[in-house]
Amino acid sequence: MFYQGTQLPPSNNSDSSDDGVPVSPPRVRLRDGRYLAYREKGVPKDQAKHSIIIVHGFGSSKDMNFLAPQELIDELGIYILQYDRAGYGESDPNPKRSLKSEALDIEELADLLQIGSNFI
User: Segment Disordered: which positions (predicted)?
Assistant: First the structure.
């Protein structure tokens, strides 16, 4: 009885196809050949009034929760891009990673996804 009470409910994984087969997140290839995985949320980027790129912290990934009501996101017209930093989640590592390389990864990701120059 205790065992059943401590089990998590089955996952409602949105990264699965209709037949339950896991679907890989989208990834982009950077100029240096590495891949960055990302997830888009909010309104479509071509309809967005505001674009936010979320950089996760240590021990996290693009799958972290962004706790804002969907109604607010829609009302404000917010497009959200979350990505796995180099060496995290499903992104390739960068042996020469630095603060500058992180900023350059964000800039290149934004360019490849055609987000434009106005993002937070």
Answer: 1-27
